[in-house]
Amino acid sequence: WLALGGAALGAAMLPGQAFATLSTPRPRILTLANLNTGEYLKTEFFDGRRYNKDELSRLNHFFRDYLANKIKTIDPALFDQLYRLQVMLGTNKPVQLILGYRSVDTKNEMRSHSRGMAKQSYHTKGQAMDFHIESVQLANIRKAALKLKAGGVGYYPK
After folding, report:
1. Where are the alpha helices (DSSP H) in the chain?
2. 3-class SS at 150?
3. Could you say which residues form the signal peptide (predicted)?
4. SS3 at position 43
5. Which of 3, 28, 44, 143 is an S-S bond match for 154, by CB 3.0 to 4.6 Å?
6. What pTM, to 2 d.p., does this model score?
């Protein structure tokens, strides 16, 4: 899930459709800013032939549950989707991460203080993120994410 803005993008992918635009091997680079921790990351997580394990580890740390300081392996398909989304939108502006991985304990604690939070969340599986991209309208991010047909899209314009 990509949560748009929040927007949300999920990593449940259909192999044929999901990788159609990735069929030509080339490096995949993401530039991200974590709005909660102030961290910034630019990473080439895929070199055109294979994933870079060290860079995936850096991304896992970047997407960690910062409240509990817990790290989970994030599904690389989520990074592929995010890369494809940026290509589709024609932007290289940093993706501003609002929420990546959320541990079950943190989610349950937050649910106890808030109404409307989902009981089940792809965030706890390392398969979802909430984000926005500076100077890109949320509605345009949503449209592009839906065109990917690669997972769920949440849209939270307020």
Report:
1. 15-18, 53-62, 76-89, 104-111, 138-148
2. coil
3. 1-20
4. strand
5. 3
6. 0.83
Tens place of pLDDT for every residue, the chain, 158 residues? 455 555 556 554 434 444 444 567 899 999 999 999 999 999 999 999 999 999 999 999 999 999 999 999 999 999 999 999 999 999 999 999 999 999 999 888 887 777 766 777 889 999 999 999 999 999 899 899 999 886 677 777 76
The three-class DSSP label of residue 70 is strand
Boundaries of every domain in the chain: 2-15+27-155
- Please name the residues in contact with 80: beta carbons below 8 A apart, sequence gap of 6 or more: 13, 18, 19, 22, 28, 46
Cβ within 8 Å of residue 50, ≥6 positions away: none
The angle subtended at Cα 142 by Cα 104 and Cα 8, nearest 5°, is: 5
